[in-house]
Design a protein that fits this description.
The complex is a heterodimer of chains A (111) and B (115). Chain A is an all-beta fold and 111 residues long. Chain A has strands at 5-6, 9-13, 18-23, 31-37, 43-50, 55-58, 61-66, 71-76, 85-93, 98-101, 105-110. Classes of the chains: A mainly beta (111), B mainly beta (115).
């Protein structure tokens, strides 16, 4: 069935890199997304990657995609306190009109 | 430009009472979504509209949930009667098109507590 899995928690020191991992199930997914949710707010699209790409870099964010293993990761360089949030991995299903979200990874920053 | 607007932000009701949520999507967005987000989980789709038409309501518990999107703009989601297990955050999202790239813009959600 359709399932997106993520680890629930990640704690990193301020200034270090954060790496959030995700596995998905639909090999036909055309787009994979990373959304960020801050407390009391809705989800905000951070970045996305098209399925024919291996990597995408956008300022401090790097997305790596391993289609063979159906593994997606998000690396945040120089992690700041403002990066504290829940990060959701999501895959497109059935022509991208439907998106399936993982359970989210809560990122906390240590001083 | 205003984002997706939802009201109310919080709602506390007793079980068996009805409740309604309202959503105003971003102007020009033809696709509207209602999601339910349980504590510690990701959003789960309840219903998707393309303009006025509900094109995917397979996850909507139709015995107690209903939704409408009159005139293809605003939408309301109703629960009647509410049950304890309905406590969750109800998120509305909208997008411009449902081609292969689908950036959904989310509202802040309505946090429902059923006592």
């Amino acid at each position: 069935g359709e399932d997106v899995e993520q680890s629930l928690f990640l704690s990193v020191r301020e200034g270090d890199s954060s790496v959030i991992n995700c596995t998905y199930t639909d090999s036909s997914s055309t787009y994979l997304y990373w959304y960020k949710q801050e407390p009391g707010a809705g989800l905000q699209l951070l970045t996305y990657i098209f399925s024919n790409m291996d990597m995408k870099q956008d300022q401090r964010l790097t997305v790596l995609l391993n289609k063979k293993d159906k593994h997606l990761s998000l690396r945040i360089a120089d992690t700041q306190t403002g990066d504290s949030a829940i990060y959701f991995c999501a895959e497109s299903i059935g022509g991208a009109s439907k998106i399936i979200f993982g359970s989210g990874t809560r990122l906390s920053i240590r001083p | 430009e205003a984002g997706v607007v939802q009201s109310p932000r919080y709602k506390i009701i007793e079980k068996k009472q009805p409740v309604a949520f309202w959503c105003n999507p971003i102007s020009g967005h033809n696709t509207l979504y209602w999601y339910r987000q349980n504590l510690g989980q990701g959003p789960e789709l309840l219903i998707r509209y393309e303009n006025e038409e509900a094109v995917d309501d397979s996850q909507l518990p139709k015995d107690r949930f209903s939704a409408e999107r009159l005139k293809g703009v605003d939408s309301t989601l109703k629960i009647q009667p509410a049950e304890l297990g309905d406590s969750a955050v109800y998120l509305c999202a909208s997008s411009y098109r449902t081609g292969y790239y689908n950036e959904q813009f989310f509202g802040p959600g309505t946090r429902l507590t059923v006592l």
